[in-house]
Amino acid sequence: xxxxxxxxxxxxxxxxxxxxxxxxxxxxxxxxxxxxxxxxxxxxxxxxxxxxxxxxxxxxxxxxxxxxxxxxxxxxxxxxxxxxxxxxxxxxxxxxxxxxxxxxxxxxxxxxxxxxxxxxxxxxxxxxxxxxxxxxxxxxxxxxxxxxxxxxxxxxxxxxxxxxxxxxxxxxxxxxxxxxxxxxxxxxxxxxxxxxxxxxxxx
Length: 203
Hints:
- It is built from ten helices and five strands, in the order βββαββααααααααα.
- With 203 residues, the protein is of the alpha+beta class.
- The relative contact order is 0.11.
């Protein structure tokens, strides 16, 4: 079983990346959030890998930049009705810490924002994950703050929402906004991110 890959980013597609490890190209399925945060092509990257075997598909590798994301993916897949695609979709809209917080609050609406996850499945996810440690101490650190009022939306969140309002699918919107954020920096305002993201979509 492959647990981690260190290599050069050779290609990045809509749903997967090709990682060149000593001349061997590994096709790794990733969520749009992970794809948007990968280093530029030709640069080195480390991916935490979860392997899955299927009789018809053979070996499929799922990659994550953070080990907590990999752990959350594994936990999500143990829930009835959650396959790899749905698990990736959930992590696209809710990184592990936010997913844990949503589970503590019983916030099924936050989980239901994931593509392909309906209200019933979202309820099952928050119920199953409540009080379960998703990553390194995430549940313990969030118990005290789970009921705190949410802060104002981030510039990236505003940019994603604006693109979705223009008819862009959420995974694609998040991917291009992440790319724009990497290019412009964390201090970039929503307007600049939206403009840069639209330029990415036009390429």
